[in-house]
Amino acid sequence: MMRTAFFLLFLATSFGIASAAPPQDPLQSPNWQDMAERLLSGHAIEFDERVKISVPSTVENQAQVPVTADARALPNVVKMIVFADLNPIQHALTLTPGQAAPFISFRMKIEQATPIRAAALTSDGVWHVGGIFLNAAGGGCSAPAVGRGEASWSETLGQASGRLWREADGFSRLRFRIRHPMDTGLAKDNTPAYYIERMEFKGNKGEPLALLEMYEPVSQDPTLTLLVRLPAGDTALDVQGRDNNGAIYRSSVPAPWRQSILAPTKQLLEQGPARC
Amino acid sequence: MLTRRNALKLVAGAASLPLLPSKAHAAPLTYELRPEKLEQGIWMVPGAQQAITQENGGAIANITILDSSAGAIVVDTGPSLRYGEALLKLAQELTGKSVARVYLTHFHPDHCFGNQAFDPALIATTQGVVDGMKALGEGFSDSMYQTVGDWMRGTEVVLPKVILSAPVEDFGDRRIRALPMRGHTASDLVLFDEVSGVLISGDLVFLDRAPTTPHADFERWRISLANLGGIPHNRLIPGHGPAEPGDRGIRQTREWLEGIEAMIRDAFDRGLDMNEAMALPLPKWAENIAVSRYEYERSVMHLYPKLEAEKLPRVDQKS
Fold it and tell me: Which residues of chain A neighbour B79 with C-beta distances below 8 Å?
């Protein structure tokens, strides 16, 4: 009780009027105030259970922790960010959904046990924040992060793979993986930061659908799940990535269900006669 | 003002106060090994049917002790130096002899981190197990210290000095057959006591506790299980779970592996991400298996990256 009173006093003196202060953090992170000021300034902030973060109950690999952020229960989300308070680099990504749902799955590097949060900005100018505390004391059989992985990373750089599924609600579910070392610049060997910083998702006729800005905490070989509304008649989803060295990575993920029923036959014909 | 010296005084004062310590701190950190006598001259020290935690000190794997006229034979050494020391003492007490041989079934830390208590020249295994310990031992060590804490004090990775080359070893009146297999890891050593007909499977078999898969090759594992099923035995000592006659452990392990692999592949084919796949309900029969949800989630994290690397079609365009 006394501690709370002291804390409130501290808040009042630090921020003057109470309404300017971010709300008290249900996860009680020592870094919350700083996070709120740096990443969420300029808008009202409220904690909201409609913004969900999913993580595993145990961490197998601190370099590849699966994180799912889901704000689909909120209307009119214009931007969603994901961050981890106690990471050396906290901000993992920003999704500007456009024609995508405010939903993303990806893998994240985690340095220690930390809150992981998603903040969704709605069109009325309010950040809705949800989060979960990730206990990163690894399981006994977990191997630690191996940093850059195999030495041959440059041979596979930019190789992308992916697939689209049609969802009942009209969204197309994209699963997408691109090979990239995603170096943080924090490794002891002085490898500079080297990561894909921007991914644009477009219909195959060029209509912009969603924008994803990624930062150093996104794991090596980014592996993403997004829900995108593909324009009627489009037969593929185009993905264009750019890393912080300026390299461009172009991919096109086919949407096979939009092909006419004749298309498979046509494809077969184009492949020429079957070998006997 | 709280100077460094004053702070130290405070700490010293607190230490002398008759504070009631929390239950965790009250634990004396002594492994209580409770051997079960299986046959004449064979004991199993059962592991807890749990995940590795601070409470159980990592003592989750079954350890086997066999008596022979040449000395005690120990299969696996447990999770820590402290456990190894207790195990050495127990083996000497039960057999009244010194240790003649220590076998390691595989390189996971709950099975081989007690090595330090034994003479490395007596510890025998396959080259693959040694390779695994070399590659992953330090990482396991970090992870074990982080997970179970003070139980690990003083524990270091100690590599075996003996690589098994002959198919059998004789210890006076006992003959042990070494059967190198793989699947749970890249190298799993199965041991068969030809005198009693006891088959010691290591972690190729789990019973009433969900199998762990961080280094598993599911297809190889199924082949090894089929091979194990073909070895007539009077009793099977699994890596985790009760030692029973018959093949319940072999069947349950196969059903688990086939069941969760099918579930995970299906989730992948439906486009689910890892967290969505992890949230799927397990079949009813799996609920009676200890730590089933925990190990299923871990298996999702082990299998998904392989499926993503192998099965997602290439979509990049040459620019």
Answer: 140
Output phi, psi for A18, to 5 deg.
-60, -30
* Cα–Cα separations (whole angstroms), residue B218 to A225, B211, B256: 26, 11, 11
Question: Domain for residue A2, yes or no?
Answer: no
What is the reported pLDDT for A257? 62
**Residue B262 domain flag:** no
Kindly tell me if the per-residue pLDDT of A18 is higher than 60: no
Domains in chain B, number: 1
Q: What φ, ψ does residue A102 adopt, rounded to 5°?
A: -75, 75
Number of domains in chain A: 1
Q: Is residue B6 part of a domain?
A: no
Q: Stretch A50-57: mean pLDDT, rounded?
A: 96
- Nearest CA-CA partner of B243 in B110, B104, B64: B64
Contacts of B309 in chain A (CB under 8 A): 177
pLDDT above 50: residue B120:
yes
A158 vs chain B: nearest CA distance in angstroms? 8
* Nearest CA-CA partner of B157 in B190, B184, B135, B181: B135
Q: For an interface test with B, which of A103, A141, A239 has the most B Cβ atoms less than 10 Å from its Cβ? A: A141
Cβ-based contacts of A225 with chain B (< 8 Å): 271, 273
Read off the pLDDT band of A16 (50, 70, 90): very low
CATH number, domain containing residue B183 = 3.60.15.10
Which of B133, B275, B310 is most worth mutating to test chain A (most A CB atoms within 10 A of its CB)? B275
User: So what's the pLDDT on residue B278?
Assistant: 97
| A241 inside domain | yes
Cβ neighbours of B148 in A, within 8 Å? 140
Residue B219's pLDDT band (cuts 50, 70, 90): very high
pLDDT tens per residue, range B33-62: 999 999 999 999 999 999 999 999 999 999
ipTM for the assembly: 0.85
Residues in chain A: 276
Indicate whether A146 belongs to any domain: no
Query: Is A16 part of a structural domain of the chain?
Result: no
DSSP assignment of A176-244 equals: EEE----B-S-STT-PPPB-EEEEEEEETTS-EEEEEEE-TTBPSS-EEEEEE-PPTT--EEEEEEEET
**How many CB pairs below 8 A link A and B?**
126
Distance from CA of A182 to the nearest CA of B (A): 17
Domain with B241 in it: 32-247
Q: Which CATH number covers residue A242? A: 2.60.40.2470
Question: Tell me, what's the pLDDT at A5?
Answer: 45
Say if residue A266's pLDDT is above 90. no
Contacts of B315 in chain A (CB under 8 A): 160-162, 176, 239, 251-254
What is the domain range of residue A228?
A: 28-138+151-260
Q: Would you give the distance in Å from CA A206 to the centre of its chain?
A: 23
Mutate to test the interface with A, among B206, B213, B273, B312 (most CBs of A within 10 A): B273
Could you give the CA distance from residue A26 to residue A12 in angstroms, rounded to a whole number?
Answer: 19
Q: Please say if the pLDDT value at position A1 is more than 70.
A: no
Answer whether residue B72 is part of any domain.
Answer: yes
Q: Quick check: B297 and A105 CB within 8 A?
A: no
Question: What pLDDT shows up at residue B110?
Answer: 97
Domain for residue B282, yes or no? no
Q: Can you give the pLDDT at residue A142?
A: 42
Q: Which residue of A has its CA nearest to B135?
A: A143
Q: Do B271 and A173 count as a contact with CB atoms less than 8 A apart?
A: yes
Provide the pairing of β-strand A44-47 with A126-134: parallel
Helix (H/G/I), strand (E/B), else coil: B302: helix
Confidence category of residue A136, pLDDT binned at 50, 70, 90: confident
